[in-house]
Amino acid sequence: MRSTRVMIGLSAAAAMVVAGCGTTEEAGGDQPAAGGGDPITIVDSRGQEVTLDGPAQRVAATEWNGVEHLVSLDVMPVGVADIEGYSKWVSAVPLDDTPTEIGTRGEPSIDTLGSLNLDLVVATDSLNEGAIEQIEAMVPVIVIEGGNGEDPIGSMFASLDMVAEATGKQDEAEQLRTDFDAKIAEGAATVEELGATGEPIAFSDAYADAGSVSIRPFVEGALVVSVFEELGLENAWTMEGDASHGLAQADVEGLTELGDVRFWYIANDVLGDPYTDELAGNAIWQSLPFVQDDKVYRFPDGLWMFGGPLSMMQYVDAAVDALEA
């Protein structure tokens, strides 16, 4: 059964801002859209009411947090943006070989989405301006937050619950919440046993361009930092980050302000590791107390920093492993 109605609620739609360029892939669209059951009305993150004829089964997602929510709820999406990138960055909930590539995360292919006979598209508030309206002309769309620096964990679960309601997977969402709470409690107990409660940590990633290293601190308001704080650890970064993701900017000189902390970071072999490559012979880097005291720890590849409960549970385990290293 095809979902047909999108109803506008009282709140205005949020602005959609992130640039990108899309790619498309041939895909067959002659399968009937699946569904069934009573109509469902969801109020999405824009305050818009989106009414479906029944639980959505043929769903596409334009951002990886939406993809993770779907797969963790046992709904394999029909369409996914940047499948290759997802496979390298998100290990908590791998895709099977059935999703169709729909383009980039900032600018999905409208033609490809239109060919998939979808019940629903899960998007975020970071799509290019006008993209939501183009997609809504063909298929219902629910918009989840890409991030929320005021309440990152709460926003994560609000998005998960919204996707669960749209797909009839509320029981699975409740189980994920239970599992997450149990993992946090287990991790916090281990942190206390290790005598690490209250220890300052600084988490980041970094990028190199022509030998110059740009560091991206995850500061107050970042989802990963909120998870670390739930474990009883303290965020050592003092600068402010962006409102959505708690991300700031720094260079190697800025690291001198951190002092004696545990310095944790995420990298990916696809992009390289600026901390061990470009900064290996850097005098400032080598002089930092956490470098000299061997308190630098690279987290495993494939832990998505902006994902759902299963990715965040991976971060709990990684934090404990780092403390025990």
UniProtKB/TrEMBL annotation:
Keyword Lyase in annotation: no
Q: Which Gene3D superfamilies match?
A: Nitrogenase molybdenum iron protein domain
Q: Which PROSITE patterns match?
A: FE_B12_PBP, PROKAR_LIPOPROTEIN
Gene Ontology CC entries for this record: outer membrane-bounded periplasmic space
Please give a single GO biological process term from the UniProt record.
Answer: iron coordination entity transport
Q: Which InterPro entries match?
A: ABC_transptr_periplasmic_BD (IPR002491), Bact_iron-sidero_bind (IPR051313)
Q: Does the keyword Signal apply?
A: yes
Look up the signal peptide feature and give its range.
1-19
What Pfam families does this protein's entry cite? Peripla_BP_2
Principal place where this protein is found?
other
Q: Where in the cell is it found?
A: Cell envelope
Residues forming the Fe/B12 periplasmic-binding domain are 58-325
Q: Which UniProt keywords apply?
A: Signal, Transport
What is stated as this protein's family in its record?
Belongs to the bacterial solute-binding protein 8 family.
Protein name per UniProt:
ABC-type Fe3+-hydroxamate transport system, periplasmic component
Q: Which organism is it from?
A: Actinoalloteichus hymeniacidonis
Which lineage do the record's taxonomy fields give for this organism? Bacteria, Bacillati, Actinomycetota, Actinomycetes, Pseudonocardiales
